[in-house]
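Ticket #4471: structure output looks truncated?

Reporter: J.K.
Steps to reproduce: submitted the chain below (1287 residues) through the standard prediction queue, then opened the result file.
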Amino acid sequence: QGDVGHTSPRLDEVQGGVVGAEVELEGSSSAVFSDGLFFNVDPVKGRLPGTSYMEDDSLFTWSDITGQILTQDCDVEEDIPTSIEIGLLGLLRKLLTLLPDSLVSRVVGPIVHHEALLAIANSPNSVVRTGVVMVLCAYFARGGDALKARFVQSKGFNMLSTQLKQFHVSLELMSAICSIVLGMQLSLKSEQLDFLHVPNTLSAFNMNASIPLLECVVNTVNQPSLCHASLCVIRELFEKCAGMHLFMLTNGLLKTLCQLIAITADHSSLSRDEKDLLLSDCLHLCKLIIIFTISSEQEEHFKMLESLLVCLSHCQQELLRANNSSPSHHLHHYQLHRRHSNHRTLPSSALYLQLFQHHILARTLRYFNEDLGVEGYIPSLPSMSSGFPTHTDMNSRFLSACVSAVDLALHCCETPFTAEHAQWLAKQPTVPSVVTYQKSTTRAASEMAFVWFLVQYFHLVLLPLVRKGGSGVASLDKQRYSITSRSQLNDLFCRLFGYLVSPVHSSEFRCVFLREVWSLEEAPALMSFILSSSTLKKLLSYRLVLVIMSLINQTEPSMYTLLNSLYDLVLQAGAPRLRPSTKLSSLLTYNDDDDPRRKQKYKTIVDELKTVDQRWMERHEYDGRAFAQKQKSVYTRLVERVSNRLLALDTSIKVTSQRVMENQYQLRKSFLDQVSMAGLQERDTLHQWRRLIINSTHPRALWSADDGRVTWWQLDPTEGPGRVRRRMMRVPRTISERHLLPEAQRSVDNSSVPTPLAFIFESIFHHGSDSLLSKVVPQEGEIFLSQVPVRCSNISPDNCCKGNFIISNKCCYFLGDEPLGDPNMTKVFPCDEQVMLASWELVDIVEVHRRRYMLKDNALEIFLINGKTMLLAFETTKERNDVHLSILSVEPPNLIDSGGADSEKLKQVTTSWQLGEITNFEYLMELNKLAGRTFNDLMQYPVFPFILADYTSDTLDLSNPRTFRRFDRPIAIQDETKIQKYLNTYNFLQKEARRSGSQTPGLPHLAKPYHYGSHYSNSGIVLHFLVRVPPFTEMFLVFQGKSFDIADRTFRNLATTWWLSSSESATDVKELLPEFFYFHEFLVNSERFALGECQTGEVVDSVVLPPWAKGDPRLFILMHRQALESDYVSQNLHEWIDLVFGYKQTGRAAAQAINVFHSSTYYGSDGIDIDSVTDPTQQAAMRTMVKSYGQMPLQLFREPHLPRRKNTVLSNFRMRIGSVLKRFSGSAPVIKFSNSQSHRHVQTLRVKLAISGSECEFIGGRGGRKERSKVYSAKLKLLPEKMALLG
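Returned output as attached by the reporter:
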């Protein structure tokens, strides 16, 4: 697959891929680099819209500023060889992972070599590139330290980055790169970044692995979430890993920052929020660089801050030059170029490069004045050593930062300052702490914010010196550097002040500037101090007098007082040629006087003032040239540091390319030899090829064929951590075209499309359960616990399938009387809906819980290690109990919860919630689980409360109690005016029951009074909310008679739903589902269902969100979840728990709380007993009522629930030991608990992990505060492809 860097690359072809090549030499500085250092922009035209570029000599190549043109993966057709390549890479990775230790030395290196993998990485297919990096992960994991050292020595990561940075980068590829860096499996998905753990130290190999990460992150800008996640990893490495900050700064981080800022600001496909996110990430990295460079002991590290500023400045100037389309200039001609580029539009990229320079210098100066730690030191990064620079070094760095800031303001701002600048200055802007993208941001606004920041900063540090120990003097630590550098600071402020009142600027600007300066605290005293102590006081005095004389006749009378006061200060400072008694009014009358001598005197004074001012201007020009030369020298120093690395990389690429080509030649020769012998074996291999084709064409095989069926996204019932179900899977569409909008309709009929390998299952399509029973053949050593199967029903959201249940010492089997049709059955084949046999091994069982079904205590729910669950309903409670005990008797090795001692588990989870150890969401999910709520039965679906009462405001105020519902009241009586209505209903029914004298014969439950005739959770409510998410769409159509509901009744508006449930409707008293707090897909009509049109003409599509959600379902879920975890909810949630799971659920407390529902929703004495009714008609009616009305959760609390004591959730890492060992090791778990006493404790184990190479040690204990308990530990080998589960 090609060679590294193509064929024998030239040096100028590989410069863009050189790690650490933040800069490149000027053409005249080195003959070696004379061919490839011009500003080459042909490969990237159109990257920044609406701009053109020149190719003149420059110190920065365009590829170093904005990266290279990237090949779109969508433009690359995946042919058969590419598909084979992808499959073989996957097989190779598995081979390396499963390879026995005895064969590693014979395979890794001699057969599988990294040079060939680096060549394959030059593929235009993103899946291939990702596969290469994942193979490298396994390659390094098995190869050992010696192999890693050889890879680093041969510049392997540099060459890998050269290959990868030519193309777009996918999430999987960046995750694989980060996995190599961290030495563990990592996914850059946003929900897993919260668990990111960066080690304190990394080996030299892992540090070098960050080279592709730094190079490729620029190519992820068009994927903002991926780019943000990658920058988070880089930031964590820089901040927390020892030595990583210096390695990154010398290996490409500066270049990466410049590229990211330039590309992000002008990227046309990014939204404003996305640009804000990425720019904020870049600014955060800059802040970490500032902390590292300032607080480091070594002076060379501080110079890296100067290097960052120089790189940003050069990028900005190259963009300015390209934007102006003017002849390019070398750096020492920068001043001339700046004057010729006035009043031109500044591209966003150049503007934000300038903004970052301002932010970096402003943040640096603030650190010296505001962020001092103990003994005046600036706090360092966690990854840095404990040493601090000396006070002399800190003083030198402080002064250097001040000089850099003043030089940037004096020599890099657009001049002259005009009325536009005056308008911005009048607003007294400042440099904000964050960078946000604003289209209205102008260069004048940015420059004035920085200039005014410097004026205020010098005022802040010099004012205590003026006061001479008076009131308001800052602490010694915060003034140490300003006291030590007093004279230099005075001169710097004089330079800045004199430049800003220079005659080159407009009169309006100078007047505004003087007025704003004069408004500062004790400004006259500060000016007097500066004029009397600065070494530039003569030059400044003359310039001020000249400015006053030029402004006095061009400004409004209100400025006269200010100018007179300033003039008096100049006289008091002893300005030459002016006596202290010379008034400003007298001086100005010299020119108007008829006396020739007075006129001559005035002319002499003015000429002398101009002569001295010319010296000021000459000094300013000299300082500008010195500043430009200083930048050039810094730039050259950076190039000299990287030039040897360029040459070394070029040599490595040539050697590697030659070696790969030789290996390819040998492989081709060997292949041709084998082909010549293939004819002799053709007849013998023909049959095996046919078998191979059959085994390789199913939908999940490497070479699956597209069967032409129309598919849609369906919710996968697999439960993840916290029982949340997020994953969507692609399955064939099964509903009629008439239920879709016209643009989503397709003429393909899935039922008529032949499916691959369907003939294999034809023989069992018409066999029933009896036939399948005979096909259950015991495995070796398998013993059935009972020869007679137990009859039960497999309950799923869309089906109730009766069948037989069998248990052996290894597996459990359910044999259906009809096709299962269970969403829990993974649909590998299209004909799986015909499958009537389901089985699972005992080793896969992690939890078993007793449940209710149809208000009968006769069900059992089994939780498997893969996240699947099975709900089985038996004929009687005794049969259920017997099956439960049978499962426990074989001691499933991964079982962590046997379903017993629920009161103890309830106490533990309640205590954890009250102490702030788990979130409100986690607590509610645990309560639902303990109360028997399950996703398998729509009548017992988990229930969550309405949280908010505000669905109309533009901003959600979580600090306002009125934003939330009343948790002490049921949802139907949030409006106080409705309370009496439900009380009247209850009293009326109670009187009717008493008046009749007896309860209704045969149906005693019907005579019981209630407040509400419906329930807050039932199948209709679940389908009402989830109608837009398959497979619930199909269930809803069945529920409504094969059509959608009336559009006016469809779930279409959250505000309307709240209004109906909380006050308006007497029958609509529904609460919410868990999906409202983590699953935004149910709010969007992504499959384009035709949900109808309301009577008002409104077309029902996606759910209308509250204004504060800004029309973004993700934002709504995020804010809704935030509201659930807010302080107000945490303090009041226990009251809602009392209503639903607690003592107010039944009895007198429920009646007093206006919380009594129809009796057909209760279990036991408060509800109905279907088995007690003998009449078949009445019994069928009661079953229908139970299926329609809903069912009460199990009552968990008999006493009032205690409120939460702490709102802070502790981030304890809990995991299921058996589950984790199974997933990571791929073998039977090491830990085994043999009695039920242990089962009750395993659930709350707090676990620590120690990872060393491919070994992982688990150490856990109950973590109780008062009692001492046993500590469990185990060691096991980790499979590399399963390391991602650690996230």
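Triage note (M.O.): checked the attachment and the full token line is present. The longest strand covers residues 799-807.
Status: closed, working as intended.
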